[in-house]
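Example record for the data management plan.
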Amino acid sequence: MKESAVKKIAVLTSGGDSPGMNAALRAVVRTANYYNIECYGVREGYNGLIHGDFLKMGPRSVKNIINQGGTILKSARSQEFRTKEGRQKAYENCQKLGIDGLVCIGGDGTFTGAKIFNEEFGTRVIGVPGTIDNDIFGTDNTIGYDTALNTAMDAIDKIRDTATSHNRVFFVEVMGRDAGFIALNSGLATGALDILIPEKKDSMEDLFANFRKAEKTGKASSIVVVAEGEKLGNIYDLAKETKDEFPDYDIRVTILGHIQRGGSPSCADRVLASRLGYGAVIGLMNGQTNVMAGMRSNDLVYTPIEEAIKKHNEINKDLLLISEILAI
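Corresponding structural encoding:
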């Protein structure tokens, strides 16, 4: 391999945590060590850059973390980094240590900060997509998505047991403020009657029609999976309108919330995180900057951060059709 374009790098986790961030951190630190590049961890994301909260890291610094959820470096959303003064402080702290490359693990907000930092000060940056929402363009899956999806599926399976026992209708809210990937796939995997997501135009009339259809086929209990960003209304309003339309229904609401963000990462997330952490360091060594490491069709690719931010992965319309057909 040709001489590395970077000598010292720092790695941070920023924004919402996702299962597999620790596995990505481990891969960054150990890949850097393998190629004799000094590596520093930054505590609490961009806040740590501003306040000089750096930790020299080596192979033993990241032992026994591949199976842990969350992030040992902690995460935060930094308001100060949004200011030019804050970013200036961060740059000066990087200069003091001689850091010439940054690996930023997170989502849209993390990548936006990295992009601006690179444009203002020239520090090489590479993003690693860590978010359960799976809405980052440039990678088939984001770190944490598979684990969150399986957590949601497992919870909905348990809810179905009680729904079936009592002939109840459950409205289950899963995470996904702007993206319905978790809702669509967990709903399909658990046999939901209906799946309400921000990417499609839903209506109460269509939902009611599905309930009537289910009644005709003898269905006594149902699950409706709702993404938290569903535009039709919040889950309690949807449940109330359904109760008004079907007074005899025994309706319950469950919000899965932050259990989807925690837990030990799945095998798929550990492998993905390991490949992307490795890919981020290799990218920096080869002179890449202002890009995101991702996996497309099982190959490591680099996507300009601007593109990763502006575009979004699209919902598979075939899955929507399949979920409707199979919900009879």
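Summary line stored alongside the record: The CA atoms of residues 10 and 253 lie 44 Å apart.
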